[in-house]
Model the fold of this input.
Amino acid sequence: MNKWETLGAAVLGLALASGCSHAKESTTINEEWLARVPPARMAPVEQARVAENSAREERNRAAAAYTDAKNQRDVAKAEQSTAKSRVSAAEAEQKAAKDSGSSARLQRTTAMVDQAKVAKKAADAKVELAEANVKAAKTDDELAKSRVETRQAQVQMAEYQVLEQTGDTRVKKMKPADFEAKVREHKAKESKLEAQLTREQKSVADARQKWNEARSRMQAAQPTPPTG
Done:
């Protein structure tokens, strides 16, 4: 690269940096500017802030649910590992029974293998459900975060509108279209995540049905305890 190309790249870089800085400043409201706004005119801002706080609380709940889902997945995987070990142990007993030549022992250990395998399938289905829950909880958390960002943008827009209506010269160069575009951008992201969450919740429902069926088969395969 010659010196002219280097100079051109530098100028382009400065222009891009300046553009990003301008885009950020075009919707940045200093909270101190609102100090002179009469309390009676602050109602739209206060309402927007209440909505933002509510969205933050929802985000906290979504984040906690995501953590719980991951913990439940860990428990399910531990149960799956135990079920797998029981299949291996039952198969070892079955092999020993074959070597012993005892038909009664072979029959008993074969039943143990069958029961262990049914339990393993139920454990596999539970892990599948847990994985689906984690995926949906993660998307729900991302959606909740996106909603917070939307409410933040709406707060900034409400603040701008109040300052503009009260004649504050510090927002004179700002454009309402910039605030509106920012809100639309976040709402579009919300819509995309909502659609994704709907699909993942369907996967959760399918996985839950599969697990319920596998669990029913496992319960049916359990030996009936002797009466009396």
Q: What stands out?
A: The helical segments are 3-25, 43-100, 103-165, 176-221. Residues 6-12, 14-23 have pLDDT under 50 and may be disordered. Residues 103-165 form the longest helix (63 residues). The radius of gyration is 31 Å.
